[in-house]
Write the structure tokens for this entry.
Amino acid sequence: MVKPGEDVYGGSASPTLLRFRSSKGLIGFTVFTAAFTDGFLCGLVVPVLPFALVQRVGVAVDTVQFWTSLLLVIFGMSTVLGAPAAAWLADHTSSRRLPFLIGLMLAFAATVFFMIGTFVWMLVVGRCLQGLSAGVVYTTGLSLLVDTVSRDEIGSWMGFALSGMNLGVLISPFLAGIVYEKAGYYPVFAMALVVIAFDFFLRLLMIEKKAARKWLDRKEAETYRSHSEVPPAPQDPTAKTSAIDDSNDFAGRVDSASQDQSERGPNEPGIINATNRPQPDEESPLLGNRQPRPENLFQRRFPTMAALLSSSQIVAAVYGCFVNASLVSSFDAVLPLFVQHTFHWNAGGAGAIFLCLTIPSLLGPAIGALADRYGPRPLALVGFALTTPCFVLLGLVKKDTLTEIIVFAILLTLIGLGLNLFLSPLAADLSFTVERLDKENSNLFGPAGACAQAYSLFNCALGAGTVFGPTVSGLLYHNTTWAITGGMLALICFSGSIPVVRTVSNYG
């Protein structure tokens, strides 16, 4: 039980290595690792899940696609449901580290269910826990990052953190495929447990800035007292008498003014007090200048979320994140099938091609720094403009020739760059917009703020995109052509730029 004066970090005594554990470098790396862990665990099951369904669970081969899609939908829906709960918990607890740790425990439980699962319901529970964990990680982690770094650094740190997600999602299928082929089923998830253990160590090690400030301020005060031996100023013996005289004089003036006010009546000019406030007349509104009552149940029950969704800048950023998740997850669904059918590659080759999408994510911090300098929305538009035509050009790759393979790899690399150019800037723009809304509307979101709830919308967008992308791309690829699939992905990408264009002039 936590005693009075203590906190979740272990009491009133200053923790060891306080400055290092509360540094923005360590906290930023912890959030990066959390995002990497989430992406790694999500992508890890992609190549092994079909084999698990047939060989361990015993489902029919012709139902594998159904169960794979259903488990993906469960993951996305769980993320959408988990993000708002995580936002509420993050805003109503004294420490963001608590929900951060809860999210990792959910990820650990999900991994165990996948490892030991021999029934469909165990895989369903595993995917559900995985989605809930994702809902916690980004909502809490990105809010923690915003709490830690200065405003002019948010873009670069956001780019760094989210590059972890992209890195995890894109390299884990490749690693899982190799480990599964060489060592079997259990070593795949043993690898996942090692990643979780390292992530757990970092989350325990870090100390939030706001928690560390209490000890740092105390140390500075003690240092100041020990080096400042300033004797108290001598008291003037007449000071007390003078203060009493001034007090009596002021009281006399107040009594005299009050008497004059009572003679003048409540509505006459005089000392400003409760009796001479403007009096309502027959035409005055009964509620004065109060804000109108929210119009619907959602606004009354969730005022912060309603305020966020009423902002076109928030909606543009959230929809852009939805588009990004849809496009990335679409590749997970159709890219291995395309390279296997067109280039006749095995699982290793299919995994290796994802490196073309992964390598640009290493530029995340640089992209974020550009967003800090030039603004997130103009940079996001550059990303949309780069990515959209590349999806169209992917449809031109049809033959197993060296030239077309090289063109294919170049296009995927440009797409990976474009995806990063609009994901991290739009994620950073969420915090900028929340800050601006709060200032323009006189502390609209109260002392708890709305950063966590804004990033819960970001998380919901990621979860919804994870469901939408593979569903649409899978249907198109199996029922039309590769060129039509690429064209539709280009259209989805282009649609993400429209709300950003409408709000780009409002950046500031």
About this structure: Residues 1-6, 224-231, 237-251, 253-292 have pLDDT under 50 and may be disordered.
